[in-house]
Amino acid sequence: MTFPQLLLCLSLSMLCISSKPTEKKDRVHHEPQLSDKVHDDAQSFDYDHDAFLGADEAKTFDQLTPEESKERLGKIVSKIDEDKDGFVTVEELKAWIKFAQKRWIYEDVERQWKGHDLNEDGLISWEEYKNATYGYIL
Known about the structure:
Elements: H1 3-18, H2 46-53, H3 55-62, H4 66-80, H5 90-116, H6 126-134
Helix pairs in contact: 2-3
């Protein structure tokens, strides 16, 4: 091997060693966030309220007095306690949070459906979809 070839190999080796590694792709499926609020209990409980109640219901609770809020939360806790033993388990709480999130999704789908079903026949034709989405004139 000649000196220029040796120098070239050595240079390429150093370049490969010093190069930045490629970004590692995350192969884990992460569940969506329960709220778009920052999760910092030292500042506020907005994240927890959104996760526990759902975004719309949390807005309603923000308008209540502490007494009204406590009364309503007591009623909700009774719904969460599925086995009626007076305690809310982690599994019961997880089930409730999933229920609250799904309820919001179903309500949003219903709202979207009504917005696209312009002739209110329970079906959405391509023409209705185009008109509702892109603003074409009927």
